[in-house]
Amino acid sequence: QVQLVESGGGLVQPGGSLRLSCAASGSIFSINAMGWYRQAPGKQRELVAAISSGGSTNYADSVKGRFTISRDNSWNTVDLQMNSLKPEDTAVYYCNADVYTSSRWGDYWGQGTQVTVSS
Asked: Which parts of the chain have pLDDT scores under 70?
């Protein structure tokens, strides 16, 4: 069993900052890519940012220059620093990880954390 637990969401004014954190735990042998997705009401879930085990990153065009993803392979954590937040960043943010357990690779998700950008 693998669990991903997110923290750090909340309400922030436009132009503000938030930092999301996600910790993976359980029967983990190795983690490949980790990432953050978001889903706004009435919209499909979309990739926000991803990071490989080697540190290569990928961002959605809408967040480039404002969001920064980072990870700590020793602690199996991934963070998302979000700056210059806009109302359109409002969504539930989900942590995702590609994890190798005792016998196979699997795609795991956190429970989601709400981010609301509003004045």
From this structure: none
